[in-house]
Write a structure and sequence with these properties.
The complex is a heterodimer of chains A (about 325) and B (about 375). Helices cover about 20% and strands about 35% of the residues of chain A. Chain A is of the alpha/beta class and about 325 residues long. Chain B contains 6 helices and 18 strands. In chain B, helix 1 packs antiparallel against helix 6. Classes of the chains: A alpha/beta (about 325), B alpha+beta (about 375).
Chain lengths: ~325, ~375
């Protein structure tokens, strides 16, 4: 479907909320205006997090009752930025504000073959895509990777719906996904859709690019909320102005800088646009690049970072410090 | 019970194939900018000849891609900052960065080359079945030949359909060429299916009007005398109307099926809504006699072009009058039977898309579809 970023906000009432796994809740919302949901669509939800109005994006799992009820899946990471806690606390009858379905990750009909790759809660976006491909009789595979089966949502539903086309990769069962093997197995003319943690997306993209496969055949959805390392507190300093801020695990470096009074530019807040770029002039620790804006070469150079999602980590309990220049 | 509302102007279905251009208009020399069903498109061909229809607005700052350049086998480059897209609308490179933004793309619309036209589907791409393209086989069938042109009609597409479904207007609008009083005096028969409407009219033992007399003399040099004349109007949803027209020597059996003593043409019309108040009206006149005569092909094309210029002027005047009299309604007559069936079919298509009869405002988010 056409790419529309025009936001229309409306109200919704929580109809149901239940835990699918210890970390993932399914939240069903009755929206005031029925919506048309295309595979890959998400909604933005307005939340009040620690007294601040903020917004979070959640992929739509499915829509029922003629688009009057939509279902989201919310993942609570050990170091959530706060959105999940607010979402998880929602109870039936609660009202919330949300957008119409937005789609930056549309499924395009007409490819020869499709491979859908989901990691963890990334399966949320893939449920609708797989259903859409099945409905069209397309040639598709759905790969679903997770740490352990009890932590993986929708497994039984997906097995029932997709049978042999579904392949589970479970780390605790020794069946982890081998990205190089996977990319080798993908025939030319296949469109690949990935949604999941940044390490999964980075690994797929690295293998993809190293084989000189067309970048346009690789589609990704990122909400910028996962990393290579657990989020820790660290210090960011701007030597030129003497500004210094502590970045708590539950906030981004961008948020900490803004709270400390730095005038920052940003747009997507999910590591895609590069507008929030800062230059690194001093570093005690390592960078946890969580963006998809930089190439591997640029990430390895450790000279810049997208402060909306990327973080700094220390080693052996030492607090990390980064000195930056803002644009 | 379903009620047909005689909406003066009708919104257009989105889940439909519309002609975007003649096949020769879409190529690699220049990118064609054309609005189809309210959607501005950039049309071009890949190096291997496939037609491509992309939204004519770059993902970045919405600069029109149609003012850009074709690069490589299939990519198009934005004229403003050089962002490139492939034929699927997927971003292939961005200036000044080593990666591409994962959400960067422009919508790409299904396209089919058929019957000398480039057809495009601007609705839900999952529903874009090429078998739904209306039958216009006379455009490419070896038993027929002809040529046509495009009229940019400054009116809602429904007014063009009304015009073609009731040809009694020929007596008044086209009095010097194909009009004659028998058009209004003769009986007509209307029939329909879920997606088609047919209006058939025969005029027996009449004088041939100038256009048809000329055609008869092309086939039967020196022809004099009276003719049996027919018009069989065939509508196929949403906006294609192929009209079987001709005359034969009176009493030689044309009404019973023997057209050997006559001349037969097909007026092939397909109308593409551009905006709520403008349309691309693609037409061609195809004939099945003197196939090798380019002279006749050109004379017929130019002749019909002159006739259709009279329609265009009337349609523009009608649209202006509609706009100038917003509080006046349409009334319907018996002669509108074919056109009213067309309206009902279109209303049902709009209903199936969850939409209303009247043209929607052009801007704004479509929350409910």
């Amino acid at each position: 479907m056409a790419v529309s970023r025009s936001e229309a906000w409306q109200g919704g009432i929580v109809a149901a909320s239940r835990a699918l796994t210890p970390e993932i809740r399914r939240i069903e919302i009755d929206v005031d205006q029925p919506v048309a949901v295309t595979p890959g669509a998400h909604v933005d939800v307005r939340l009040s997090i620690a007294g601040e109005r903020d917004r979070r994006s959640y992929s739509i799992v499915d829509a029922t009752d003629g688009g009057r009820r939509i279902a989201l899946s919310v993942y609570t990471s050990p170091v959530s930025r706060g959105g999940a806690a607010v979402m998880n606390a929602l109870a039936p009858g609660d009202r919330l504000e949300l957008t119409q379905p937005l789609n930056d990750f549309p499924l395009r009909p007409g490819a020869d073959r499709y491979v859908l790759i989901a990691g963890g809660v990334g399966i949320t976006a893939m449920v609708g895509m797989a259903a859409g491909l099945q409905a069209r009789g397309a040639d598709y595979r759905l790969l679903y990777a997770g740490r352990s089966r009890p932590l993986m949502a929708y497994v039984e539903d997906l097995r029932e719906a997709h049978g042999e086309r579904l392949r589970l990769h479970v780390r605790d069962e020794g069946t982890s996904l081998s990205i190089p093997d996977l990319v080798d197995s993908i025939a030319p003319g296949t469109e690949v859709y990935v949604c999941g943690p940044i390490r999964l997306m980075d690994a797929v993209r690295r293998e993809w690019m190293s084989r000189r496969r067309p970048i346009a055949d690789l589609r990704m959805e990122t909400f910028g909320n996962s990393g290579w390392f657990d989020a820790q507190e660290f210090t960011v300093r701007i030597p030129a102005t003497g500004l210094e801020a502590r970045v708590r695990p539950d906030q981004s470096m961008l948020e900490a800088l803004e709270a400390a009074g730095a005038d920052m530019l940003w747009d997507c807040r999910k590591g895609e646009c590069g507008l929030c770029e800062v230059r690194i002039v001093g570093l005690d620790g390592d960078i946890d690049h969580r963006d998809v804006f930089y190439s591997e070469r640029q990430k390895d150079a450790r000279s810049k970072m997208c402060c909306c999602v990327s973080r700094v980590v220390g080693s052996a309990g030492r607090g990390a410090v980064v000195d930056i220049v803002t644009t | 019970m379903q009620q047909t509302v005689t909406a003066k102007l009708l919104d257009h279905p989105r889940n439909a194939w519309y002609v975007a251009a003649w096949d020769h208009e879409v190529g690699r020399k220049k990118i064609l900018a054309r609005t189809v069903a309210g959607r501005p498109l950039a049309l071009y061909r890949t190096e291997d000849g496939r037609a491509v229809a992309l939204a004519d607005a770059c993902w970045h700052r919405l600069a029109p891609l149609s003012q850009g350049a074709l690069v490589g086998p299939e990519d198009i480059r934005c004229p403003y900052h050089g962002i490139t897209y492939d034929a699927r609308g997927r971003c292939t490179s961005m200036p000044a960065q080593e990666t591409v933004n994962p959400s960067a793309l422009v919508p790409s619309f299904p396209v089919v080359d058929r019957y000398r036209y480039v057809w495009v589907w601007v609705g839900d791409p999952a529903l874009a079945d090429p078998d739904l393209i209306p039958d216009m086989h006379q455009m490419t069938d070896a038993a027929w030949t002809g040529d046509g042109l495009t009229i940019h009609a400054p009116c809602n597409y429904q007014l063009v359909l009304d015009n073609l479904m009731d040809l009694t207007h020929e007596e008044f609008v086209h009095s010097s060429s194909i009009g004659q009083k028998e058009l209004s005096e003769s009986e007509f028969v209307t029939s329909h299916t879920d997606t088609t409407v047919t209006v058939e009219r025969w005029m027996h033992d009449i004088e041939a009007p100038p256009f048809w007399l000329k055609n008869m003399r092309d086939r039967f040099p020196g022809f004099e005398g009276r003719v049996d004349r027919w018009q069989i109007i065939h509508f196929e949803a949403p906006s294609t109307i192929c009209i079987d027209v001709g005359v034969a020597k009176a009493g030689t059996g044309a009404p019973e099926g023997d057209r050997s003593q006559g001349v037969n043409g097909y007026v092939m019309n397909t109308i593409t809504p551009e905006t709520a108040r403008s349309s691309h009206y693609f037409w061609s006149f195809q004939r099945n006699y003197r196939l090798d005569s380019q002279l006749i092909t050109t004379q017929l094309r130019d002749g019909v072009h002159g006739v259709f210029g009279e329609d265009e002027a009337m349609l523009a005047a009608q649209q202006a009058a509609i706009d100038a009299n917003p509080d006046y309604e349409f009334y319907s007559l018996n002669i509108d039977a074919g056109g009213m069936w067309v309206r009902r079919i279109l209303e049902r298509m709009l209903l199936a898309e969850g939409r209303d009869h009247a043209p929607a405002p052009r801007a704004g988010a479509q929350v409910v579809r």
